[in-house]
DNA sequence: TTGAAAGCGCTAACAC
DNA sequence: GTGTTAGCGCTTTCAA
């Protein structure tokens, strides 16, 4: 068995309380601290964090609950959260829910049992609606998606604006029949759809938005079918990286290319969006910043639980690339003006 | 404060021991179990896992230590590890080391303090060499990279074979001046380099392998320079996804394309490798299987610590795509035979 | 500044 | 089957 605090105390000839203080930040004479550290090192002492947590009643642990860590958006966020957490001396428990409300409930329950200090959560729309964040023993910071306003801290993109920017850009490039693909499990999908509709309406146009399961496979299927329809749109936007990938694959399978046959744009500046063809126009999200900010908000709330509920809304950045170059019919002398 | 086991006991009119047994898998009469469950539900009781761990002396926790979760290889592995862990009722603590031996040491120390059941670890070459896995209070399973044979369980790719396959493929396609990019911090880089050299030597050829920092940026810089040299290779292989990405970017920046100016191939079947141009030829690693297998090995060792040390070597799969189509000089009637 | 002692919430040994 | 009790390893009063 490994050395306990008692063993260190015995070896250093002091009480366990002194050891605890010396290894922590208690008031101990320099000489004793030295002796204790020496003894601890000698014995290879490692404090037992379970015991420390039980006694001290704080776990220095945060839960991070996302749909799938393999989504590059969440990958980046999680890296930021972990960097910030470890810097603050906290651990992170990562949970993948696969957009499944049952799993979400299960992990929230687990977080209670872990007595986590707080949770950073990207909930499905259903759970966000139902969730009473103050029903838990810990604060919750929502990321990417949010529930009813003012219920919990949140870090989100300005989704309506970003979607509108994308639409405005396509309109400026001469596209008029714009279709949209939106995830059907998150508030983000709805908000981006709202921005999409609003921007088109502002120009007296209507677009066709389709809500689908947030997977590349679903998008590929839907877009493949869409492309075969009579009234094919001349531009398509996809409300996240997975949907954009599916859309791109559908185009490739159909032997079509952007922007020649169809303009394509979307959300999330994933590696491949800059590599394929002349690049895909996307809204870049400040992914690392989202994670870091979420952790900062959590820490400041732990520091002062009386803080009022805050929403941090971050702006996306439009990266214009080749996939949305001007519509053929708008290209100067060779086409209609 | 939340309800404790004592409160549940009082509410159900039984002893705390009975509550513990009823909620766990102890022998309790059906009637009492019912009453206890009812009371626990009523009170919203959540067992305190810190207390349970301290008392029971097992934490049901595994550590996963990788260089960077943003590397898609580790992303996929981590998802597999977590799936398997949560299924087995265990939690995962994720640690990013950035290939930094100091961070590796720090996290290993943290794992000791957490009294984890075991660790799944992808160490730098330096740490792998130094590491004495039995110096810790928990078993270690190495993934992707391994240390001295027989020291710890490991799940690795057959790196030499995979690199050789890549070389053989390029040779068969008519390429003769093959360069290689290898990471300089991992055993994986060395092994792939060895396979590369061996395969070339078997054909009486010599390649030029360069060892560099395992980042896309380093690869881009090195390849940009390499392409400007007098003796430009006619094919390049990159020993992981990051290096392959950097190499591709260097080509694009130089206005070159594969396979026209230079064949390009590498490791890791990342999303973008299938999308760019006519696709990049890669060795696909069974990423999810690697993670799942590592977790299985860990669980079986926890079950029976007497098991002898095992290495599981998995085969990669060569995915031939457009970036390595036949060398111009080997293309039938139009070129040299 | 240091030590003695209580106790965090739970499980497991033992007794009935 | 059920209850009583000790104690996991630590931090934190409280007293000296």
Written account of the structure:
- The structure is a homodimer of 337-residue chains.
- By secondary structure, chain A is of the alpha/beta class.
- Helices cover 43% and strands 17% of the residues of chain A.
- The first copy, chain A, has 12 helices and 12 strands.
- Chain A has helices spanning 5-12, 16-23, 30-43, 49-56, 72-87, 101-113, 125-130, 159-172, 187-201, 216-228, 241-253, 287-303; strands at 61-66, 91-96, 118-121, 140-143, 153-157, 178-183, 208-212, 235-238, 263-267, 281-284, 311-314, 317-319.
- In chain A, the strands form 2 sheets. Chain A has a 6-stranded parallel sheet with strand order 2-1-3-4-5-11, sandwiched between helices.
- In chain A, helix 1 packs across helix 2 (16-23).
- The A-B interface holds A 2, 46-51, 53-54, 59, 68-70, 72, 75-76, 78-79, 82-83, 86, 91-96, 109-110, 112-115, 137, 245, 248-249, 252, 270-272, 275-276 and B 2, 46-51, 53-54, 59, 68-70, 72, 75-76, 78-79, 82-83, 86, 91-96, 109-110, 112-115, 137, 245, 248-249, 252, 270-272, 275-276.
- Chain A binds a DNA duplex (16 and 16 nucleotides) through residues 4-6, 14-18, 20-21, 24, 26-29, 32, 47-57.
């Amino acid at each position: 068995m490994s050395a306990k605090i008692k063993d260190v105390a015995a070896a250093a000839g002091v009480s366990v309380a002194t050891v605890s203080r010396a290894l922590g930040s208690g008031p101990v004479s320099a000489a004793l601290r030295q002796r204790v550290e020496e003894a601890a090192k000698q014995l290879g002492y490692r404090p037992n964090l379970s015991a420390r947590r039980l006694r001290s009643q704080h776990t220095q642990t945060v839960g991070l609950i996302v749909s799938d860590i393999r989504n590059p958006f969440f990958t980046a966020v999680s890296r930021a959260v972990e960097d910030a957490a470890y810097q603050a001396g906290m651990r992170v428990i990562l949970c993948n829910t696969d957009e499944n409300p049952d799993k979400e409930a299960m992990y929230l329950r687990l977080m209670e049992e872990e007595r986590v200090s707080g949770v950073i959560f990207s909930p499905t729309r259903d759970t966000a609606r139902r969730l009473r964040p103050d029903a838990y023993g810990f604060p919750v910071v929502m990321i990417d998606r949010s529930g009813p306003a003012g219920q919990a801290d949140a870090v989100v993109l300005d989704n309506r604006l970003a979607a509108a920017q994308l639409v405005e850009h396509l309109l400026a490039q001469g596209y008029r029949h714009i279709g949209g693909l939106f995830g059907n499990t998150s508030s983000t999908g709805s908000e981006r759809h709202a921005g999409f509709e609003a921007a088109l309406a502002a120009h007296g146009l209507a677009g066709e938005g389709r809500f689908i399961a947030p997977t590349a496979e679903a998008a590929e299927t839907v877009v493949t079918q869409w492309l075969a329809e009579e009234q094919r749109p001349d531009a398509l936007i996809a409300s996240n990286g997975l949907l954009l990938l599916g859309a791109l694959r559908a185009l490739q399978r159909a032997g079509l290319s952007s922007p020649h046959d169809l303009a394509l744009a979307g959300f999330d500046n994933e590696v491949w969006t800059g590599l394929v063809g002349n690049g895909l126009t996307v809204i870049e999200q400040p992914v690392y910043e989202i994670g870091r900010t979420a952790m900062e908000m959590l820490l400041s709330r732990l520091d002062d639980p009386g803080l009022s509920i805050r929403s941090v809304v971050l702006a996306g950045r439009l990266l214009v690339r080749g996939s949305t170059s001007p519509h053929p019919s708008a290209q100067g002398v060779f086409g209609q003006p």
